[in-house]
Amino acid sequence: MGKEGFLSPKAIGNRIKAKGLQKLRWYCQMCQKQCRDENGFKCHCMSESHQRQLLLASEDPNKIMDNFSQEFKNDFIELIKRRFGTKRVQNNIVYNEYINDREHVHMNSTQWETLTEFTKWLGKEGFCKVDETPKGWYIQYIDRDPETIRRQEELERKKKQDLDDQERSAKFIEEQVRRGQGGREPEVREYHYFTFNLAKGSCSSADGPSKASVALGPSALKAAGSVKRKDVPSTSEAKEKKKKSALDEIMEMEEQKKRSVRADHWLHPGIVIKVVTKRLGEKYHKKKGVVKEVLDKYTAVVKMIDSGDKLKLDQSHLETVIPAPGKRVLVLNGVYRDTEALLDSIDERKFSATLTLDSGRMKGRRVDGIAYEDFSKMA
């Protein structure tokens, strides 16, 4: 006979089974008891403790359901806030992490019948931002903590102040450049060039031979040297050129500072993309399309090139298209975001490319190391 008691194989197996999640239909929320099979659940429903709980619940069933709904909502939102913060995440991922706790409140005891219904309720009540995609429902927690709101307002105020300072400095620089270029006309200097015939001792001007020959001595060479030195630009002109180049550098630095923040979205109307998800079938997998419209930064209306069908897709189901060298592309992220460029070359080892900017103040600049996902072919 086998061992009896706590260390018997059957007892060990029962404890292992009890650790994991069991079927939801054999769970009693009122008693918070999980049964292992249908027979156990039936026996529990006939037990005296379960009958007492039913009598208590029958006095005010709406209050019991409201309590379970409130507890479920609080635990779910607390998980989003603690685990994901204000990131955009799929609702199924959050729910799967929530039910890992064996003591969680089950949804069948709340006022919501499905997870989709609960997700819509969160968006309606203003707890989260919700949006529907072909991949499913996505939620994003809205942090309404007064301290967080105060920090965000301070950051926005500082960012606005920096932009105002940049705009003022840019206007000042432009005004100085305009005054420097448009306030005066370039000076016109006349130079007379002389040719010398040392053998004959005569001099003639560039306009024609002189009427009278003049004997020249050694002082004539010094005079000619002084005339040639007039061709050298003055130090004020050289300083003006250096000053203009410094202004150009400042303007370029300001432009780069405005574009230095990377974003987590890259969709843009008018670019060519490729569908990478397999959920739409082989008809659209690895097929190219053109972005016609961008919705809420992360979703795009795409018109397929082959079939002409219009699809609403999330950016996680798409990827950029790298054209042949010499074609026009659009920079989608980074310092040069929203700038048109020409593709010069591709570095397959570093998964990057070299572009020549074709719009904006830095037009003509050659930029190296632009990653594949930061630019795409233009339609």
From TrEMBL:
CDD domains: KOW_KIN17. This is DNA/RNA-binding protein KIN17. Keywords: Coiled coil, Cytoplasm, DNA damage, DNA recombination, DNA repair, DNA replication, DNA-binding, Metal-binding, Methylation, mRNA processing, Nucleus, RNA-binding, Stress response, Zinc, Zinc-finger. Belongs to the KIN17 family. The keyword Nucleus applies. SMART domains: Kin17_mid (SM01253). It comes from Hucho hucho. Involved in DNA replication and the cellular response to DNA damage. May participate in DNA replication factories and create a bridge between DNA replication and repair mediated by high molecular weight complexes. May play a role in illegitimate recombination and regulation of gene expression. May participate in mRNA processing. Binds, in vitro, to double-stranded DNA. Also shown to bind preferentially to curved DNA in vitro and in vivo. Binds via its C-terminal domain to RNA in vitro. Associated with DNA polymerase alpha, RFC1 and cyclin A, in multiprotein DNA replication complexes. Also associates with replication origins at the G1/S phase boundary and throughout the S phase in vivo. Residues 52-178 form the DNA/RNA-binding protein Kin17 WH-like domain. Gene3D superfamilies: 2.30.30.140, 2.30.30.30, DNA/RNA-binding protein Kin17, conserved domain (1.10.10.2030). GO terms for cellular component: cytoplasm; nucleus. Residues 228-240 have a biased composition (Basic and acidic residues). InterPro entries: C2H2-Znf_KIN17, DNA/RNA-bd_Kin17_WH-like_dom, KIN17-like, KIN17_WH-like_sf, KN17_SH3, KOW_KIN17, Rib_uL2_dom2, Znf_C2H2_sf. GO terms for molecular function: double-stranded DNA binding; RNA binding; zinc ion binding. Pfam families: C2H2-zf_KIN17, KN17_SH3, SH3_KIN17_C, WH_KIN17. GO terms for biological process: DNA recombination; DNA repair; DNA replication; mRNA processing. Residues 224-246 are annotated as: Disordered. Residues 149-176 form a coiled coil. It is found in: Cytoplasm; Nucleus. Transmembrane segments: none annotated.
